[in-house]
Design brief:
The protein is an alpha/beta fold and 343 residues long. It is 45% helix and 16% strand. Strands 7-5-6-4-1-2-3-8-9 form a 9-stranded mixed sheet, with helices on both faces.
């Protein structure tokens, strides 16, 4: 079975560049597309062999999606000596599953990709070359054209806009990433439940690049990202990595207070000049509704921050591992284990 020690090709040369044949790990969160895994691994192996890259290690994290992906993972790991299967105890979400895969991978270069073959495995060598050619710590595979539904594309566009607003980094986020081992080790220090991988990566490096890759149509299952989940992802980004929502609420409160003072001053002048012919309650109702709405919005934003602090203090787990398929490759866990990553 594959060893998870750090033997093999070194990740960096003395000049800081990546060796031409680094040890590669591919982390795949599996959710509903288990039948694609055998084809994905076959094509990835062929692509790396054709590019004279080292045979990759595959870390398959079953995130309890629909279907019986775990049986497929067990079948693959039974006949392959460079594949590790990890089963989580419930659905923790894609980003949390990737954090679990990061913990158990052993490569000098780590690639994350989806399980549905929308990310072409043939592009793995191109992403790895991008790290070296662009002297980057992180490379995103940006799509030439997306094959997602309109709603999914809209949600992704909003998340990307939020990301650029918060981090001031002009990149397009995708789940097809290639990153150095040192960056993975840096983000593994984060053990809270509300995980946003791309925010953690942006916190730890500014050397971020991209390469253009094709985007294929989904062959099996359906996307687990609904508009609601994309909204939750955007909220994770805002509340975990930025004070911008609180700052916006403070600005709205300041504007409302300033507007109220100006309106009060105007009514004072109007009363002195006898401009108020028929006093009414319309202005009062408008003021009450506007200020009441701002107050509820402010309480909601503050409550979101407080609620997340509450869950973190209560040690909500980032993920919980039910078992591993490989009894020899991981020194700190056996086949049947309960590895809990607490925040």
């Amino acid at each position: 079975m594959v060893s998870h020690s750090r033997t093999g090709a070194a990740s960096l040369t003395d000049s800081g560049e990546i060796n031409l044949a680094p040890k590669i790990s591919v982390v795949i969160p599996v959710y509903g597309s288990g039948r694609c895994l055998a084809e994905l691994i076959r094509r990835a192996d062929a692509a790396c062999q054709a590019a004279s890259c080292a045979a990759p290690q595959f870390v398959l994290v079953d995130d309890n999606g629909p279907g019986d992906a775990w049986s497929e993972i067990c079948s693959l790991t039974a006949v392959r000596d460079n594949t590790l299967g990890i089963q989580l105890m419930r659905n923790f979400g894609q980003h949390n599953a990737i954090m679990c895969g990061f913990k158990y991978c052993s490569g000098d270069v780590i690639i994350t990709m989806d399980d549905d073959l929308q990310h072409p495995p043939e592009c793995l060598p191109e992403l790895i070359s991008g790290l070296r050619l662009q002297n980057a710590d992180l490379i995103y595979g940006n799509y030439d054209s997306k094959k997602h539904a309109v709603g999914r594309n809209l949600g992704s566009a909003v998340v990307n806009w939020f990301f650029r607003l918060v981090f001031r980094i002009p990149v397009t986020l995708t789940s097809f990433r290639c990153l150095r081992r040192e960056l993975v080790q840096a983000v593994l220090r984060y053990d809270l439940n509300f995980t946003f991988i791309d925010g953690l990566l942006a916190w730890n490096t500014s050397r971020i690049g991209s390469v253009i890759v094709p985007h294929a149509a989904r062959l099996d299952g359906r996307s687990g990202y609904t508009l609601r989940k994309l909204f939750v992802l955007a909220m994770n980004m805002f509340t975990n990595f930025s004070l911008l929502p609180l700052q916006v609420v403070s600005m709205l409160g300041l504007l409302a207070a300033g507007g109220g003072l100006c309106l009060g001053f105007w009514y004072l002048i109007a009363a002195i000049m006898n401009w108020l012919v028929v006093p009414g309650y319309a202005s009062i109702i408008v003021a009450v509704l506007v200020l009441g709405g701002l107050q509820l919005l402010s309480l909601g934003v503050i409550g979101e921050y407080i609620g997340r602090l509450h869950l973190n203090v209560n040690r909500k787990p980032q993920y919980v591992v039910r078992c591993l398929t490989d009894t020899l490759s991981v020194s700190h866990a056996g086949r049947h284990c309960s590895d809990t990553r607490l925040n």
